[in-house]
Design goal:
Number of strands: 0
Structural class: mainly alpha
Radius of gyration: 20 Å
Largest sheet: none
Mean pLDDT: 81
Shape: globular
Amino acid sequence: MVGVLIMGFKRAAFSNEAGIGSASIAHSAAKTDEPISEGIVALLEPFIDTVVICTMTALVIVVTGYGEFGQQAAFEQAETIGGISLTSSAFGQIISWFPSVLSLAVILFALSTMISWSYYGLKSWTYLFGESKVADLSYKLMFCIFVVIGSALSLGSVFRFGDAMIFAMAFPNVLGLYILGPEVLKDLRSYMSKVKSGEIKRFK
C-alpha cells in the first residue's frame, strides 16, 4: 500500500505539477485585481487533471483487464511498455479506432507541455541572468538540445530524471509555502469576506 502511494504521488506530481511552483509562473502573467481568485482557479487544474482524467483512464484500464497485456504483465513491464501503450491497448479493446485519436492527443499534449515548460524555464533563466538577447538565445539553444537528449533516452530514464528534478523543485517551494502560509490565509479571509459582503463578485 505504501509503495502504491509513493508511485501515485510521483506520477501525480509529474502529471499536475502540484506543489513544485511551476504553475505560479503561468498564473502570475494573468491580470486581476484579486490574486486570490486566480489562485482558486489554479486549484481546479490538479483536480481536473489527476482526480477526474487520470481516474477515468485508470478505471478503463482496470475494467478492460489491462488491455492485451493482462494485470501481471502490466505491472511487471510498467516502465518498458509505458502508460500510453497500456492505455491505448485498453481503449482499443472497446473502441477500435481510439488508439489513433489517443496518438494525436499524446502528440498535442507533448507539444503543449514542451511549450509551457520552455516558457517557465525562460522566465526563470531571464530572472537569474537578466532580460537580454544572449540569455534568451542561450536558453532556447540549451532547451532544444535537451529535447533531443530526452527523446533518445529510455522511458524509465526520463521518468527517473523527471522525478529527481520535481523533488528538487518541490523541496524549496513547499518550504516557501509554509513560510508564506499565514500571509496567504490572511489574503484568503479578506477575499472571502469581500465575496460574502457582495463587495466583489465571486471569482471575478
